[in-house]
């Protein structure tokens, strides 16, 4: 499969700071790459290079086969950008902003208006179309930003922390939108500090820290790569906690983690086949459970195990595990 | 590998933007600035309210003392105030551009396949409208106070044209500063230090002959003085062509120096 985004050895320095220290990327067409990392990891710098807003000091990057430095105009005609840095004019209305962008992309005024109305309808902003952007709530603004980046029907879309600062409801709305984009065949590069966001949306996750890629893979691969699975059981009745804990201890060989507030018992599991044994034993003992699940470690746990405890201030590269290939 | 192999592009890949595209992009972006003026007329306060205050203050407060007669002073002051007004109006360009850059609006434009110079040129072209509004407000107020054009409409239009050209050249200083400072608020602060000696160290408010010799030296070569003399000649009757030519050369020199500086600072600032 052809890669829509490819980069090799990207380096970018700002004075003495090295923002990117040799980053390789490969995103197949129509997929979502989640670039995960803490503040200052170099995510935004990478996006800005791929969007032709910055020149790399070393390395190269191609978008749809076009070099981001030598063929920047071609790249710009294929990409859309949404993020902390590319924003809308707050004084103008949503429609005015989108029409302006449409006109700059070569649409006639009537065409640009039709396109703007289409996108605003799709993002449920039709009612607010005439209001200036500065009156928009955070969620509306992010939707308007997304709409703006789609005016030119991009093949490749960069979403730089699209949900940072949004409430959970608005975040879900943005997520739904991103999923529909991929249905249209758009390739998405998404940066995020939220592990569940990458897990929810991305086909591939690249973990970045200190300008380097420290792991790449499918979400489940990454999770498996960094640890075993966890069994969670929540007995329906509080009085069954002890009996359930005993069964889990017996089967897994370790004492389960017990949370009396939530009524949840958690135990590490080496063999996924254990789940059916647990079900049988609980059934035999006449214990019913509200929740019984085998889950992979959360990306939080993955991230911590990959980057060490204090990822953003940690300069010790020795603990960084080998890069795995997707 | 070509674009055709990736998820079937639904639009044409743009390979380059020629001069005609650049002009079109610039005009579209100038249109944006005009819409902004229409939506936020209060952004024009600095170029409308201030000259009106100056007009009242100088004519009625100092006019009698300087010219012996407020009406005579109004006729003398008005052409100079137009020049001062244009000089102050040109400050706004740098502030607006700095705002666009710090707010990320520029990055949006730059991530699009438009001419590289368009955001800059568009902003400057859009400012012509600001200049014209500023001029119109000043002229109408002055006429209400009793100012009259003693020549002909053609001369009046020529004055307006001279002012706009002067403003368009001077604004590159503002653009340059706007690219260098961090926040939009800092732009006027820096530029006032440049505009004040330029507009007050001139014959706009008082006749050159009333000043000490050392000051006369500066006032006489000051482009604001030259442009003021040209405007007085054109509006009140009298010689103007030499003054206009001198002022125009000055404006050109400012543009020749500051346009490349501004453009270089722009490219450095926005990467």
TrEMBL record, chain A:
<feature type="domain" description="ABC transporter">
    <location>
        <begin position="5"/>
        <end position="235"/>
    </location>
</feature>
<dbReference type="InterPro" id="IPR003439">
    <property type="entry name" value="ABC_transporter-like_ATP-bd"/>
</dbReference>
<dbReference type="GO" id="GO:0016887">
    <property type="term" value="F:ATP hydrolysis activity"/>
</dbReference>
<dbReference type="InterPro" id="IPR005894">
    <property type="entry name" value="DrrA"/>
</dbReference>
<keyword id="KW-0067">ATP-binding</keyword>
<dbReference type="GO" id="GO:0005524">
    <property type="term" value="F:ATP binding"/>
</dbReference>
<keyword id="KW-1278">Translocase</keyword>
<keyword id="KW-0547">Nucleotide-binding</keyword>
<keyword id="KW-0472">Membrane</keyword>
<dbReference type="GO" id="GO:0043215">
    <property type="term" value="P:daunorubicin transport"/>
</dbReference>
<comment type="similarity">
    <text>Belongs to the ABC transporter superfamily. Drug exporter-1 (DrugE1) (TC 3.A.1.105) family.</text>
</comment>
<dbReference type="InterPro" id="IPR017871">
    <property type="entry name" value="ABC_transporter-like_CS"/>
</dbReference>
<dbReference type="InterPro" id="IPR003593">
    <property type="entry name" value="AAA+_ATPase"/>
</dbReference>
<dbReference type="Pfam" id="PF00005">
    <property type="entry name" value="ABC_tran"/>
</dbReference>
<dbReference type="GO" id="GO:1900753">
    <property type="term" value="P:doxorubicin transport"/>
</dbReference>
<protein>
    <submittedName>
        <fullName>Oleandomycin transport system ATP-binding protein</fullName>
    </submittedName>
</protein>
<dbReference type="InterPro" id="IPR050763">
    <property type="entry name" value="ABC_transporter_ATP-binding"/>
</dbReference>
<dbReference type="InterPro" id="IPR027417">
    <property type="entry name" value="P-loop_NTPase"/>
</dbReference>
<dbReference type="GO" id="GO:0046677">
    <property type="term" value="P:response to antibiotic"/>
</dbReference>
<keyword id="KW-1003">Cell membrane</keyword>
<dbReference type="GO" id="GO:0005886">
    <property type="term" value="C:plasma membrane"/>
</dbReference>
<keyword id="KW-0813">Transport</keyword>
TrEMBL record, chain B:
<comment type="similarity">
    <text>Belongs to the ABC-2 integral membrane protein family.</text>
</comment>
<dbReference type="GO" id="GO:0043190">
    <property type="term" value="C:ATP-binding cassette (ABC) transporter complex"/>
</dbReference>
<dbReference type="InterPro" id="IPR013525">
    <property type="entry name" value="ABC2_TM"/>
</dbReference>
<keyword id="KW-0046">Antibiotic resistance</keyword>
<feature type="transmembrane region" description="Helical">
    <location>
        <begin position="118"/>
        <end position="144"/>
    </location>
</feature>
<feature type="transmembrane region" description="Helical">
    <location>
        <begin position="73"/>
        <end position="97"/>
    </location>
</feature>
<keyword id="KW-1003">Cell membrane</keyword>
<keyword id="KW-1133">Transmembrane helix</keyword>
<feature type="transmembrane region" description="Helical">
    <location>
        <begin position="44"/>
        <end position="67"/>
    </location>
</feature>
<dbReference type="Pfam" id="PF01061">
    <property type="entry name" value="ABC2_membrane"/>
</dbReference>
<feature type="domain" description="ABC transmembrane type-2">
    <location>
        <begin position="42"/>
        <end position="269"/>
    </location>
</feature>
<dbReference type="GO" id="GO:0046677">
    <property type="term" value="P:response to antibiotic"/>
</dbReference>
<dbReference type="InterPro" id="IPR051784">
    <property type="entry name" value="Nod_factor_ABC_transporter"/>
</dbReference>
<keyword id="KW-0472">Membrane</keyword>
<protein>
    <recommendedName>
        <fullName>Transport permease protein</fullName>
    </recommendedName>
</protein>
<keyword id="KW-0812">Transmembrane</keyword>
<dbReference type="GO" id="GO:0140359">
    <property type="term" value="F:ABC-type transporter activity"/>
</dbReference>
<keyword id="KW-0813">Transport</keyword>
<dbReference type="InterPro" id="IPR047817">
    <property type="entry name" value="ABC2_TM_bact-type"/>
</dbReference>
<dbReference type="InterPro" id="IPR000412">
    <property type="entry name" value="ABC_2_transport"/>
</dbReference>
<feature type="transmembrane region" description="Helical">
    <location>
        <begin position="156"/>
        <end position="179"/>
    </location>
</feature>
<feature type="transmembrane region" description="Helical">
    <location>
        <begin position="186"/>
        <end position="206"/>
    </location>
</feature>
